[in-house]
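I hope you will forgive my troubling you with a question about protein structure. Here, with my thanks, is the record as I have it:
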Amino acid sequence: MKKLKQDCFKKIVHNGIVFEEGAAVYAKEIDKNIFLVFTIKQHTAPENIQAFIAQFDSWGSIGKKEPLQMMFSLSVKDKNDLHYFEKFINVSETYKIENE
């Protein structure tokens, strides 16, 4: 969670309908209305962490409405999963910059 806060993720207040009640949810906008979201369930075992990229109407709809489009999802089982996810994000960002 410290790393997410350092990387400019915002904590999302949610009503327990879209995400499990009690889960910590952090999001970062990576493109217009496209968000990288981490959900960390109450028990912080690795299998309780989900990461996904999705399109929402706005910041305010995260956790209150289902995403408009789910683009990528990952269940984090160990540190290697986060490493591969980070590589995916970096490749996607490089592709975006090259095609602008």
Remarks:
- Helices lie at 2-6, 79-98.
